[in-house]
Design goal:
The complex is a heterodimer of chains A (about 850) and B (about 200). Chain A has 27 helices and 20 strands. In chain A, helix 2 runs antiparallel to helix 9 and helix 15 runs antiparallel to helix 16. Chain B is of the alpha/beta class. In chain B, strand 7 and strand 8 form a beta hairpin. Chain B starts with 15 loop residues before the first strand and ends with a strand. The chains are: A alpha+beta (about 850), B alpha/beta (about 200). At the A-B interface, helix 15, helix 24 and helix 25 of A face helix 1, helix 2 and helix 3 of B.
């Protein structure tokens, strides 16, 4: 009972009277939590849709033996079945089929899964067990195993194709038309929606014949005996299996996906945490002001015998309530924001990694709970200091009227700590980068750099106030003088607002500079790399599945088109080198054009000529950094004939894959993978004066004429560049929204600080009124004060932002993605951000200035003194 | 509810008038009305023939800035301004030049005996010194009327006496009429005459 009375006296009545201020604080928490939840939810939904697709196709085996470089030998199945600890084996092949709804329509690509249907039914390591088989009554189940024309499709695909169960549907497989019977339809389970239903399942033997695999396998799933240690079995198998067989545990696969996306998620999450940090500034600010304002009440209660603990508890309870209400609002706000962000995030993941198609937000209680806990925790943490201060103030002091600030010391020690932090940040940032993929050092450096500027903010604000006292007073008269004096009177609190402002502006500037540097680098790089006139690629069918390749016949036909000078076909294979995903690809080293390009200072054309002559590889920068391999080193590449050691002739710049490429000449690639004559994409060099429009039409016609050609995209050089830049800009669109929110929170922080100061400076306002100052002149004082805070916050924010952007660009990006990005400050953009934040902050001063004017009106009725 | 009713008062130019009465008698309300901080529902308030009672709030503020000075019980200095800046404030608010304001403040500081403390911060002064600064601030812009609300209420009796003497002398030399609200009979004794109030009415003068 007593506790409730204390709470009501210290919190309840104030919160009611200061509804605006309370609402502002709650809003600050809500925005912070919302941003965090939104990022996590949108991210998680996009990622889980990506991972989900992998899982749908991968099944739930305890161990998987996967083809690395070249397909697995069928004999491996029997051998694995005999291994100790292995209970059952399920071989699997994957391939592609094309389907056209009408003869002229562009083909859709379907994933063909060949599985041991009988085995799956019995031992169920595969997702196939989820297939709701609905064979026609008169079609025995065995027809799936024996009838070479029967496949299982999905209900979604059948509906799209206008086919019913049992209907014959025409596909193209390996360039040849094939008519298959949809013997069963999958309408439930994990596979039903995978790739929007573009999945065909057939028995292994049937699929093998259809895809012409000659008994070769892509994957063998293993279930283990009960009690068998999967790590132990995996290690044993890894020793004895051939080089092209990679043993994976499901969690390893997940880890690899996580590793692929880690850098991307890390960057987004860092932004979210900065937002909540800014929110914490806001809470700390308002809570400490609340304590100061309620000192008389605290004193009275303490004099009446209320314990320190009860006083502290009341303030902590207020912090908790603000946190809880703010978090609840933040969850609602964040979910809405996540829905809005989902498209952009999944587009970003699709562009950077593989196609994902999240149509729904994946509700994740963990994320929501984490957001709420963080919101409440931050509020409580921010309330802790002020609560302890309230509890520790002797009753006699609290009842005395007077200056709210407890001195303005501490500026110098804080500045020294800032300098130390900055030196540490610089030392970390200037270290030699390592290929870790997770730039922990970079993030520590970034935190220290921002911390340094926060440490300097008090000294800077105090110094600026002293230095500008004369200037403000000359420029703005009495109001200018009062504004500066007001800031000096509440230096500690004002510093917190400035720190919030500086952190959010630093983030805005840093991300802006990073994105602009990145964009400039990529645009420059594309100018160097994209030298062909037309680019042809197969349209990706969807999540996690590679597009059907462009057949060799198409490549030859394209080469023969008059006006086409040369065709450079690119073919890549995913490989795993030292446990990390990478691409092994090939191009025509004899025709690829490298005008003005260099590799590590040498003309690129010379390096490539050497590589061609010496049967060597070139690798991308990302590969070189992640695998710590440089020119002159060797890389072991898995091929059909086993692992091959290739000397690295040079390292080239590339921003298209963060896993990195190992590239050899096409002739060498075909030695390693005989028969891999098809291509993923083609670069066409045209003869001078060739008619592009006519050539494009000819290519489109060829795509129909040459059997087995998947849906193609043909882009002119400038179109491809435009497309890439658009994709780039889409990736970073989320960032801009987040920046905006952080700035709004920081500006609200300044408004809240000034508002609190007004409540605290009632006596000053009363005095000014007696002296004859009008309402608007008092309002002007407040706006000028906010201009002073804005000036210092913006100056420090730009400084911190530049330091942060340097670390982001040259350390964090380099370590996350393995890409060298030229640090280039877009001064116009920096000036624009600074100006926007400055104006927004000054305008935010209008909120408290209105309150001041209101108090002016009522102050005449307050007893003077 | 009427706080003041039927009050008709005339202050002779250059006089020093004390307003006495218990708490709630209407002294401060009367001072606020005279100072233009509040407007009466009806009636007039004239200074040198100008009825400013029904000016709008900004108009009354402007009038107050030009013609009226205030002294408070708790001095009401701005703690983070220097002595000079505190005194100069009304001059600056009148948008006169900074040099004018500085010079005027220095002159007034000399007059109240604080010429050597111009650059001290207000919160570094003693109570008596603070009230001197307040007097200087109230007179620096040459107001016709000086309103004082319990100016000695927060001072010991000796200092209070000195302060009252100073108010009286400076008001006289600057040609300002003084209206002082007080509880303190000995303070009221320093006035030319005393007006007694009770329940919002003038009961004796």
């Amino acid at each position: 009972m007593r506790w409730r009375a204390v709470f009501r006296a210290l919190v309840g009545c104030y919160a009611r009277h200061e509804r605006g201020r309370t609402a502002l604080t709650v809003l600050g928490v809500a925005l912070g939590v919302a941003v965090l939840i939104a990022i996590d939810l949108a991210n998680e939904s996009a990622v889980s849709s990506f991972k989900g697709t992998l899982d749908d196709v991968a099944g739930r085996a305890q161990l998987t033996v996967r083809a690395n470089g070249s397909a697995l030998d069928g004999a491996l199945v029997a051998r694995l079945a005999k291994e100790p600890g292995v209970r059952s084996v399920s071989p699997l092949i994957e391939g592609q089929a094309l389907h056209r709804r009408t003869p002229d329509a562009p083909p859709e690509t379907l994933l063909v899964l060949g599985v041991d249907l009988l085995a799956s039914e019995e031992r169920d390591p595969l997702p196939v067990r989820d297939i709701a088989f609905t064979p026609e009554k008169d079609r025995p189940f065995t027809s799936f195993l024996t009838d070479p024309r029967v496949v299982v499709g999905t209900r979604r695909f059948a509906d799209r194709a206008g086919a019913s169960e049992g209907a014959e549907v025409e596909f193209e497989i390996n360039g040849a038309p094939v008519r298959m019977v949809l013997g069963g339809l999958i309408s439930g389970g994990t596979l039903a929606d995978t790739l929007d239903g573009n999945v065909l399942v057939a028995d292994l033997g049937i699929a093998d014949a259809l895809l012409g695999r000659g008994g070769k396998l892509d994957r063998i799933d293993l279930t283990l005996d009960e009690g068998a240690d999967s790590a132990e079995v995996a290690a044993r198998l890894a020793e004895s299996l051939p080089a092209n067989a990679l043993v994976e545990r499901p969690e390893t696969r997940g880890e690899r996906v996580d590793e692929m996306l880690a850098a991307f998620r890390f960057n987004l999450n860092a932004l979210g945490h900065i937002s909540i940090l800014v929110g914490a500034f806001l809470i700390f600010n308002t809570m400490s002001v609340a304590v100061v304002r309620r000192r008389p009440a605290i004193g009275t209660l303490r004099a009446l015998g209320v314990s320190r603990r009860a006083v502290a508890a009341a303030f902590l309870a207020e912090g908790f309530l603000i946190g809880a209400i703010g978090s609840a609002l933040g969850v609602l706000l964040g979910t809405g924001l996540a829905l809005a962000m989902l498209d952009t995030v999944s587009a970003a993941i699709s562009i950077n990694f593989v196609q994902t198609d999240p149509t729904r937000l994946a509700p994740d209680a963990g994320i929501v709970l984490a957001g709420v806990l963080l919101g409440i925790g931050t509020s409580l943490g921010a309330a802790m200091g002020p609560a302890l201060e309230a509890a520790s103030t002797p009753p006699a002091n609290t009842m005395r009227r007077g200056s709210a600030e407890r001195g303005s010391g501490g500026a110098v020690p804080m500045a020294v700590a800032g300098a130390v932090a900055f030196a540490l940040a610089a030392a970390l940032a200037l270290r030699e980068p390592r290929g870790t993929g997770l730039p922990i050092g970079g993030y520590i450096a970034a935190t220290l750099a921002v911390g340094a500027f926060v440490g300097w903010s008090r000294l800077a604000l105090g110094g600026a106030a002293s230095g500008l006292r004369g200037v403000y007073s000359r420029l703005f008269g009495a109001e200018g003088l009062l504004a500066v004096a007001g800031t000096q009177a509440t230096l500690g609190r004002a510093t917190v607002a400035v720190a919030g402002l500086l952190v959010s502006l630093a983030m805005t500037v840093a991300v802006g500079v990073m994105v602009s540097s990145f964009r400039g680098t990529v645009v420059g790089w594309m100018g160097e790399v994209l030298r062909a006139d037309l680019y042809v690629s197969a349209a990706s069918p969807g999540a996690g599945v590679r597009p059907a390749p462009i057949p060799a016949a198409f490549v030859s036909a394209a080469e023969a088109i008059p006006g086409v000078e040369a065709v450079d076909p690119f073919r890549g294979r995913r490989i795993v080198v030292n446990g990390r995903e990478a691409w092994f690809g090939s191009g025509r080293f004899d025709i690829v054009r490298f005008e003005n390009q260099t590799m590590e200072g040498r003309p690129a054309a010379e390096v490539v000529r050497e590589a061609l002559a010496n049967r060597e590889a070139i690798v991308s920068e990302a590969f070189s950094r992640k695998h710590l391999l440089a020119t002159g080193d060797s890389v072991a590449v898995p091929t059909a004939a086993g692992a091959v050691e290739l000397r690295i002739a040079g390292v080239y710049r590339d921003y298209s894959s963060e896993q990195g490429y190992v590239i050899v000449d096409r002739s060498l690639f075909l030695e390693f993978f005989p028969g891999e004559t098809s291509a993923d994409s083609l670069s066409l060099y045209l003869a001078p004066g060739a008619d592009r429009a006519a050539l494009r039409e000819r290519l489109a016609a060829l795509a129909v004429e040459v059997p087995g050609t998947p849906a193609l995209q043909v882009r002119a050089n400038d179109e491809l560049r435009g497309f890439a830049i658009e994709a780039f800009d889409n990736t970073f669109r989320v960032t801009h929204a987040l920046q905006l929110i952080a700035v709004v929170v920081a500006v609200l922080g300044v408004a809240a600080t000034l508002l609190a100061q007004i409540l605290d400076r009632q006596q000053e306002i009363t005095t000014l009124r007696h002296l004859g100052a009008t309402q608007w002149r008092v309002a002007k004082v407040i706006v000028l004060e906010s201009s002073l805070l804005a000036l210092v916050g913006v100056a420090l924010g730009v400084g911190a932002g530049l330091a942060l952007s340097y670390i982001l660009t040259t350390v964090i990006m380099l370590e996350s993605f393995g890409w060298t990005i030229a640090f280039d400050v877009p001064w116009g953009l920096v000036a624009q951000s600074a100006l926007i934040v400055f104006v927004a902050t000054v305008l935010a001063g209008l909120i408290p200035s209105r309150e001041a004017a209101k108090r002016m009106r009522s102050s005449g009725r307050v007893a003077v003194g | 509810m009427s706080v003041l009713r039927g009050v008709t008062l005339d202050f002779a130019e250059g006089s020093f008038v004390a307003l006495m009465g218990a708490s709630g008698s209407g002294k401060t309300t009367l001072l606020n009305l005279i100072g233009g901080l509040d407007a009466p529902d009806e009636g007039t308030i004239r200074l040198d023939g100008t009825d400013y009672a029904h000016f709008d709030d900004d108009g009354r503020s402007e009038f107050r800035l030009r013609h009226i000075g205030f002294i408070f019980q708790f001095f009401n200095l701005l703690p983070n301004l220097t002595v000079r800046e505190n005194i100069a404030l009304p001059v600056l608010l009148l948008r006169r030049s900074e040099r004018d304001a500085r010079d005027a403040a220095a002159r007034m500081a000399e007059e109240v005996g604080l010429g050597n403390k111009l650059d001290r911060m207000a919160h570094q002064l003693s109570g008596g010194e603070m009230q001197r600064v307040a007097i200087a601030r109230a007179l620096v812009h040459g107001p016709r009327l000086l309103l004082a609300d319990e100016p000695t209420g927060n001072l010991d009796s000796k200092t209070g006496e000195t302060i009252l003497g100073l108010v009286r002398a400076l008001a006289a030399s600057h040609g300002a009429t003084v209206v002082m609200a007080t509880h303190d009979a000995s303070a009221a004794a320093a006035a030319d005459y005393t007006i007694h109030m009770r329940d919002g009415r003038v009961v004796a003068s």
